[in-house]
Write a structure and sequence with these properties.
This protein is mainly α and about 220 residues long. Helices cover about 55% and strands about 0% of the residues. It folds into 2 domains: about 80 residues, Helix-hairpin-Helix base-excision DNA repair enzymes (C-terminal) (Endonuclease Iii, domain 2), CATH 1.10.1670; about 100 residues, Endonuclease III, domain 1 (Orthogonal Bundle).
Length: about 220
């Protein structure tokens, strides 16, 4: 049996409401340039944005370029990010990707998803975030929040993260494509939460196809 899906008119209304509530959504990761954004997104895997921001506050005061990161070194980086999960592996990848940026891209973050995914520690989701946030490309970075919202609401059902990304690519209309992934992440993080969605204060409640909606709280 095929998953229930929102129709075109419902999807347009869905994003219209999210856009009206938050006209200029932004990532909650703190960064000062494209390189710092890339590093922050790599560090954010299996970690909260708040936790990453706390760890990178002093790091990003000291390190603004790949060359500065390489000079800091893997052990030096670990001292900054040791509060983040998987920090040993992430430190190794950040140093390696920094060296690759210097060697292959003149120290600049490439505006190309395929080139980004060739960097150590950079998967498709990370590359999509960078392409969207740094360069304004219409990419859909599907994290656990977007995967849940896409399936739960009927916006973009899919059995895998890639399936949901493909569904979003096909179904999200203009003028919402550039900011869609930010709206969906924030909606999943603060309203359509994993264990208990806050359906009572959801602005797209009447559009959502989720069967087990939670009652409004007083």
């Amino acid at each position: 049996m095929a998953a229930r899906q929102l129709n075109r008119a419902q999807i347009f209304e869905f994003f219209s409401r999210l856009a009206e509530t938050n006209p200029a959504p932004r990532t909650e990761l703190a960064y000062g340039n494209d390189y710092q954004l890339l590093v922050a997104v790599v560090l954010s895997a299996q970690a909260t944005d708040a936790g990453v921001n706390k760890a990178t506050r002093r790091l990003f005061e000291e390190v603004k370029t790949p060359a500065q990161m390489v000079a800091l070194g893997e052990e030096g980086l670990k001292t900054h990010i040791k509060t983040i999960g998987l920090f040993n592996t992430k430190a190794k990848n950040v140093i390696a990707l920094s060296e690759a940026l210097i060697a292959n891209h003149g120290g600049e973050v490439p505006r190309d998803r395929d080139l980004l995914t060739q960097l150590p520690g950079v998967g498709r989701k990370t590359a999509n975030v960078v392409m969207n946030t740094a360069f304004g490309e219409e990419t859909f970075a599907v994290d656990t929040h977007i995967f849940r919202v896409g399936n739960r609401t009927g916006l973009a059902p899919g059995k895998t993260v890639f399936n949901v990304e493909v569904a979003l690519e096909k179904r999200v209309p203009q003028p919402f494509r550039r900011d869609a992934h930010h709206w969906l992440i924030l909606h999943g993080r603060y309203v359509c939460k994993a264990r208990r969605p806050d359906c009572g204060r959801c602005i797209v409640n009447d559009l959502c196809l989720f069967r087990d909606k939670t009652p409004a709280t007083t």
